[in-house]
Amino acid sequence: MASSVFFGNANNGFQAGTIYGPVNTTFHLPPERPETPPPPSILIPFVRDADFVERGTTLGQLQQRCAAPDARAALVGLGGVGKSQLAIEHAYRTHKESPDTWVFWVHASNADRFRESYRSIADRVKIAGRQDPQANIFKLVHDWLCDCKQRWLLVLDNVDDAHFLLSGQAGGDGQGQTTNAQVIRKPLREYLPHCERGSIIVTTRHEAAALKLVERRDIVRVKPMDEAEGLALFKKKLGLQGNNSGVAELAAVLEYMPLAIVQAAAYILQRAPQYSVAKYLDEYRKSERKRTSLLNYDEGHLRRDWEAKNSIIVTWQISFEYIQQTRSSAADLLSLMSFFDRQGIPEDLLRPRTERQEAETNQTEKAEDDGDSNSEDDVSQSSAGDDEFGDDVVVLQSFCFISTDAGGTMFEMHALVQLATRKWLESTSKLEQWKQKFVSNLCAAFPTGEYENSAACQALYAHAKAAREQQPKDESSIAEWATVLYRAAWFAERSGNIADAETLAIKAMKARKKVLGQGHEDTLWSVAMVGLAYRLGGRWDDAEELFVQVIETSKKKLGADHPDTLTIMANLALTYQNQGRWDAAEELEVQVIETSKKKLGADHPHTLTGIGNLASTYQSQGRWKEAEELEVQVMEMRKKKLGADHPSTLTSMANLASTYRNQGRWDAAEELFVQLEVQVMETRKKKLGADHPHTLTSMNNLALTCINQGRWDYAEKLQVQVMEARKKKLGADHPDTLTSMANLAFTWKAQARSAEAIVLMRQCVQQRQQVLKAGHPDLTLSLRVLERWEVE
């Protein structure tokens, strides 16, 4: 039965009865009505930012490039660094300075949005033929721009993946639909016209994408703001006037990253007045989890595309995902780098550890291997590994996630990028995997804290401190982590960083107790390191308690004559010295020396250290001649064994000069003043640093020699320097700081500045009463001196 269709009163469209076979129908659209071309205008989906902050010469560079005929430029930088904001400001300035210039904005994150933007341009400028379903909208806009009599600026925003611009586009109706008879058109990149009257700006996170569209010379790198710019932006967003130290501090913490600053300002303002900059800063510093929570805030920016995230964390994680999909080995490299300190990341620690181990053992393996080795294969594998690593570095540099030093062997990255990477790893359940890899590589590279390893330790020290907050969960990895912290504590102690040494040693001790047990040798050494930090920090009773504990366990585990046991006994004897318990110190030191001579030999460094310690005890007891004999012996042996500029040799030389001075042998002391004390002080400055405790001791000794020579002004200058440096390095109430205070008081008294001397000595006595036990020789002496001065 045939069906019928009713079309109404009009006779429009296609009407047919029953048809058997194909039908070809042609629709004839009515001709387009002529449209009046509009005057040049600005087509940007964002309002101008009233809070815009000048970015040094960046806008100037952009303007200079765009002023040339047929100009192209690319703003390349991290996500959230302000590339689009610079492009927006440049666009508005361009149109204001030249109202006859067309300004267009193209969303170039993907093909669909690129097409939408081109269609918007066609509609705005009223291009004829744009309504035709078969029209190629890209060609229409391209041709219009080429024929345009006015100047124009085209901004391609967010070209982070340029692949869609390079592939051929299927022909169709101009809306993304195609017919059965598809025609492959040229790549979209070809629809970006070259025209003397036009200029094109590209914004992208990915340098490789930029290079698909512009020459390398046309890249303008956008870096985070400097201090003044970051502070200015923060104040504008918060509506603040004048100086605000909290804002400056927070801007620095956020590494002057514009998106992070805008995000933080929005967070604070939304919660005001109950919330403040100080509150945000306090919350930010509480933990890594709190930092990521604050930085995940996704509000506050009106001049970002709807696809772009306002959260700095999420913004970067989009790039992480892209790298993971396109080159997973580069994502792995970024993952590993995220745990290091942000600066001075050595290439050697980033390569697979097995390569380093093979390189270190290669010579021994060859000596034992009677078979032929395929050296050509070895070379090709190494070369391939170098190429892979180099390519990964190029990818990360292209996204502005890392940078290198001039030599290309040290890397650097923003702390916020590291934080975002770790957050991303946590979300993908890979955090522990890469944390363990970081710890393992660092443990393999970080040497023990002997003087000979100082340079290597210094290069890795910041990374060990970064590891302090990255304890793994796996027990074997915890053991490696504790080893890193212990060795770093050792180096910190040798470097005079007592506070760091204590913090690192305590963490290592707790971890080793947990995974190795109380009696394990490594645990004992960690406990001893904590004791050493306590002793150097003036916590002598705490140090004594730990040393006694370790000695008892070490005697049972290792034996009373084991070198490790003797070392800890020597540290306990030094603690007795600090406490003013000279007899106990002497008894223990003699015991250590005799056992060390039998076990290690008379010229062993441990034996010489013991002899030097005994000489120091003799000094404290006023037994100058005995002290001198031992110090000469130790100094000569150390010169032969270690060299004249070794820190231990310098200590011997300084101690001998001090003994001469205390004996009243001014002729000898004056000679040593030139030959020893100045030499020791200057060498220590070079080797250890100007604020190292040993360097400060040398300055103090030189001041005492100057006093004996009657050079009061120079002595006072040195003593003030030492006292202030010790306050900063050791603390205002450290026993060594109080010794400096007492020495300066004596100098002022000798200069007839009695009132000042009494005030300073009174302060010294009050502080010594708080930190020293009653009866301590230093406290007793200062009390006696103060009493005498006050009645004079």
From TrEMBL:
Residues 350-366 have a biased composition (Basic and acidic residues). Residues 350-387 are annotated as: Disordered. InterPro entries: NACHT_NTPase, NLR-like, P-loop_NTPase, TPR-like_helical_dom_sf. Residues 74-236 form the NACHT domain. Pfam families: NACHT, TPR_10, TPR_12. Residues 367-387 have a biased composition (Acidic residues). Gene3D superfamilies: P-loop containing nucleotide triphosphate hydrolases (3.40.50.300), Tetratricopeptide repeat domain (1.25.40.10). This is TPR-like protein. The lineage of its organism: Eukaryota, Fungi, Dikarya, Ascomycota, Pezizomycotina.
